[in-house]
Specification:
- The chain contains 20 helices and 16 strands.
- It is an alpha+beta fold and about 625 residues long.
- Strand 8 and strand 9 form a beta hairpin.
- The protein starts with about 20 loop residues before the first helix and ends with a strand.
């Protein structure tokens, strides 16, 4: 194999400059050694190069009943690179491979048929065959092979294709033949549910599919509020059918909202009371934002974040400096530059309200402050909702002032309107929401530290808001008067997380603004209502669990409260006055009369059941 130039996926059918050697390619394709034929076909798969000769030999391999399956696998994938016009005549040849005994050949057949899955000339043959494959399949690679390329083909096709695709996937879901237990007794239920969810995702992605999914999923899980709710809540509600449009709003308001409030009542309470602080204030990890998203889906759109004080283009006093030599770190030794550094002389209290920047030779400039490769960035993209680094994207506002050196101190005093009851507030730091953006910062309000973020955006934080909540200890600072804001941050030399820079390329941008959010309803009435929609554990449910296999039964087997309290007729009780005391320490159970008694405090209740009495005090 090495003599032919084949090694670890690389093949010697090109010259050093990249020029193809056609004679060598032809020789390999016609080799008597199947390993060589497979190697050249897989090289074409990898490079996605398909010549008429390669296509013809791929079709020949698929037709040949004696050809190696590994070669057929590569050949099927190459056929999938061709145009629909040349694949359509091959549909009858390719469809039987959807029933092949080897899963990887079934998956390759999906690839070959993808370009014509929604073609008007072939969809009536292909979609039912694909649906039957998915219905009887329990391999992840095959199920996921239906998405996303085939979905894209279907979505851009005609209404007739949409209808057949929805009907096919509906039958695939309702008739799914996956196994919940293996022959050896292994629990396959998680895999079974995964495949059903994948089929549901495909159905939800087909025009008109959500209406079908709502009906069939509700039949399968009648006790679930809204099965696969993530698909419905993420979809465009304007495309729902009449039945789903009528059903979705009461489902959200009467069931999903109470359920969410009940499950998240502690987090919601702390956030509403401004008791929680975070470097990522709001977004997908924030309980109130999650609740607001549910209200928004039901048509109540007044609970989103809105601008409260826009300081992105405001005038600031600022000072930029490089740390003293002993504290300077080579550009390639730190991922994020934030660290303790010695402040210039006379600037120890730079963040205090009584600090006078003019006496310390501070400059004045308009935010945003920015730097890219030592220059003022000059290519802002105003349609971007977040701030980025690099010349291609610089956030919602152009950079106004050059951020000259590594450390930036900025401060300003601004007049704010009074905060509103029933709202919460956050300060937003606009230094880039992508992973790798930002260099860490500390922010002060009227001399008190609000938030310290010691690094830029790490893995998993891309797209999340950055800044801080206005917590309750800072609420009194905002009474409709002046507030002094001070911020310290560091420039970056890379734009990747956990990757040290390879060249000294300073980059960064920063500005801030404040936002407010009207609190959505989350009161006790919703908490109480949630008790009737959230499944609860019970001794009966617990007794049914399988401790050996650690299998938990689904929610429909849990206790569900009907929202009513019923008296238990088997228990009767009466209250009898024992004594009256002013303080608990004055009570003497042995005394018949208490000289210190003033008001009723302790009573005795007598319980009688089945002729027995029990007294407690």
């Amino acid at each position: 194999m090495k003599a032919l130039g084949v090694n670890s996926g690389y093949i010697g059918w090109t010259k050093p400059g990249g020029e193809v050697r056609p004679k060598l390619v032809t020789e390999f394709l016609q080799s008597h050694d199947p390993r060589v034929r497979e190697a050249i076909l897989r090289a074409h798969v990898k490079t996605k190069k398909l010549t008429p000769e390669v296509f013809e030999l791929s079709v020949k391999a698929v037709k040949d009943p004696k050809e190696s399956w590994t070669i057929k696998d590569a050949a099927l994938q190459l056929i999938g690179l061709a145009s629909p016009d040349v694949i359509v005549p091959l549909v009858d040849l390719l469809i039987p491979y959807l029933k092949h005994e080897e899963a990887w050949l079934r998956n390759a057949a999906l690839t070959a048929l993808t370009p014509v899955a929604a073609d008007e000339r072939s969809y009536q043959k292909i979609l039912p065959a694909m649906g039957e494959l998915i219905r009887t399949n329990q391999r992840v690679s095959v199920t996921l092979g239906f998405a996303p390329a085939i979905r894209a083909q279907i979505k851009s096709a005609s209404p007739a294709v949409h209808q057949l695709a929805a009907e096919t996937l509906k039958e695939t879901f309702t008739g799914y033949a996956g196994k919940k237990t293996s022959v050896s007794g292994q629990n396959l239920k998680p895999t079974y549910e995964f495949h059903l969810e994948a089929i549901a995702a495909s159905l939800a992605d087909v025009p008109g599919g959500l209406d079908a999914l709502y009906e069939i999923a509700k039949q399968r899980q009648p006790n679930e509020i809204l099965p696969y709710k993530e698909f419905f809540l993420a979809a465009d509600a304007s495309k729902f059918g009449p039945k789903l449009k009528k059903a979705i709003k009461p489902i959200i308001m009467d069931e999903l909202v109470p359920e969410f409030v009940g499950k998240n009542r502690v987090k919601l309470g702390k956030l509403a009371a401004a008791e929680t602080q975070s470097e990522r204030p709001g977004g997908s990890r924030d309980a109130i934002d999650g609740l607001a998203a549910l209200y928004d889906r039901a048509g109540y759109q007044e609970f989103g974040w809105t601008m409260f004080a826009d300081l992105r283009n405001s005038k600031w006093s600022y000072h930029s400096f490089d740390p003293i030599p002993a504290e300077q770190v080579p550009f390639d030794q730190l991922i994020t530059r934030y660290r303790e550094v010695t402040l210039p002389k006379g600037m120890a209290n730079w963040f205090a309200t009584d600090f006078q920047p003019a006496k310390s030779d501070w400059k004045e400039g308009k935010s945003p402050f920015g730097n890219y490769d030592g220059k003022l960035p000059d290519r802002p993209i105003t349609k971007c909702d977040h701030s980025c680094v690099g010349p291609a994207c610089f956030g919602a506002t152009p950079v106004n002032t050059l951020w000259e050196k590594e450390v930036l101190l900025m401060r300003g005093t601004f007049k704010f309107p009074a905060l509103k009851e029933g709202h919460r507030y956050r300060l937003m730091v606009n230094d880039g929401n992508h992973v790798g953006a930002g260099g860490g910062h500390i922010i002060y309000l009227n001399g008190k530290a609000l938030i310290e973020a010691k690094q830029g955006n790490g893995r998993g934080s891309g797209g999340l808001p950055k800044g801080a909540y206005l917590t309750k200890e800072f609420i009194d600072e905002f009474k409709g008067g002046d507030v002094t804001i001070a911020l310290k941050t560091f420039i970056r030399y890379n734009d990747k997380y956990k990757a040290k820079p390879t060249s000294k390329l300073p980059m960064g941008k920063i500005s801030i603004h404040f936002e407010e959010q009207k609190l959505p309803p989350m009161g006790h009435d919703l908490v109480l209502k949630s008790a009737s929609v959230v499944p609860m554990l019970s001794s009966g449910w617990q007794a049914k669990q399988d401790p050996e296999n650690h299998e938990l039964l689904p929610d429909e087997d849990k206790f569900r409260w009907d929202g009513k309290f019923d008296a238990n007729p088997a228990i009767k009780g009466t209250w009898n006055l024992l004594t009256e005391v002013a303080e608990i320490t004055d009570f003497d159970p042995a005394a018949k009369k208490n000289p210190k008694a003033r008001r009723p405090l302790f009573t005795r209740i007598t319980f009688e059941e089945n002729g027995a009495s029990d007294h407690s005090s």
